[in-house]
Amino acid sequence: MLGRRAREVFGAEVMSIYLPTCREVVATGLPQHFETHFPANGRHYLSAVFLLDPEHYVNISVDITERKLAVAQLERRNAELQQEIQVRQGMEAKVRRLNAQLEERVRERTAELEAANRELEAFSYSVSHDLRAPLRVIGGFSRALLEDGAEALGAAGCAHLDRVCAAARRMEQLIDDLLQLSLVTRCELRREEVDLSRLARDIAQKLQETEPGRPVEWCIAGGLRAPADARLMQVALENLLGNAWKFTARHPQARIELGRAEGAGRGAFFVRDDGAGFDMAQAGKLFNTFQRLHRQEDFAGTGIGLALVQRIIRRLGGEVWGEGAVEQGATIYFTLAAQTKT
């Protein structure tokens, strides 16, 4: 290339880009750094021009095309990410708005439900309370007629009045149970460490005193304690143990047990008996109000007891369920809020 001009070697396009800078370097003596792009080959260069001596200069150029492409690609990806972030932020804002709306609707519905429950409980309490007076009148006058006019009424009349008195007593018992059911949801909870074993032993003793000669084996595990409301647990255990006592009445030798079923998978307490039991196909009705799985003639009752137990256990944050088989006994399990369920 010796003896040839730079324009002849590099071409007019290259020299049109570099020549002005080279002349500036010669004129000022100061080095120059700059980027260039050649449309002809699509390449990018980083160039440095500096003076070698008063009459000669040096140009060094490095191809930076790949780096420029990588930077451009990175910038595009950043722009895409920014757009995705904006979209996601918009979606998150929408979800937050929807959650806020949902929470507000839940609060409104909860308030409406609580108000409806309060009204229903007040209505139930009022109706139950107001029914007592006419029932007392019916029962009182019926008994008075039986005592004072038995001869005039005759055997058939007395039998009819006996049925009226029995119905009045049953209705009064139903009202008492409804009042108790209503009070369970209205009373204030007082949580404390409750000794379930002691409560059960006291209840068992009172039940045994009603029929001292009845052979019943009581198996009450010791050390059964749980955080609960002592008054409510007293009511729940009275109903559970009372049911076990009632439904074992036809067996010559009965066994009633209170314990903890650690192996049942939920760490539950249980009350078990070997009495009349029930058909598991009817288990879904077990805790329904006024629902009975046995005939009134076989076992007296109102069908409130287990419904009351369920309401108490749920109010204490637990669960209750039952298992049984006809004439093979029944087991009622229950958990309380502080117990761990696996």
Structure, described:
Helices cover 55% and strands 20% of the residues. The protein contains 7 helices and 10 strands. It has helices spanning 6-10, 12-28, 65-148, 150-186, 196-210, 230-247, 305-315; strands spanning 32-38, 43-53, 56-63, 191-195, 216-220, 225-229, 254-261, 268-273, 320-325, 329-334. A hairpin with a 2-residue loop joins β2 (43-53) and β3. The strands form 3 sheets. The chain has a 5-stranded mixed beta sheet. It has a 3-stranded antiparallel beta sheet with strand order 1-2-3, with helices on both faces. By secondary structure, the chain is of the alpha+beta class.
- Count of individual beta strands: 10
Structural class label: alpha+beta
User: What percentage of the residues does DSSP assign to strands (E)?
Assistant: 15-25%
Radius of gyration equals: 45 Å
Largest sheet: 5 strands, mixed
Notable characteristics:
342 residues; 55% helix; rod-shaped
Brief sketch in words of this structure:
With 342 residues, the protein is an alpha+beta fold. It contains seven helices and ten strands. α3 runs antiparallel to α4 and α6 (230-247) runs antiparallel to α7 (305-315).
Q: What is the topological layout?
A:
Elements: H1 6-10, H2 12-28, E1 32-38, E2 43-53, E3 56-63, H3 65-148, H4 150-186, E4 191-195, H5 196-210, E5 216-220, E6 225-229, H6 230-247, E7 254-261, E8 268-273, H7 305-315, E9 320-325, E10 329-334
Parallel strand pairs: 5-7
Antiparallel strand pairs: 1-2, 2-3, 4-6, 7-8, 8-10, 9-10
Helix pairs in contact: 3-4, 4-7, 5-6, 6-7
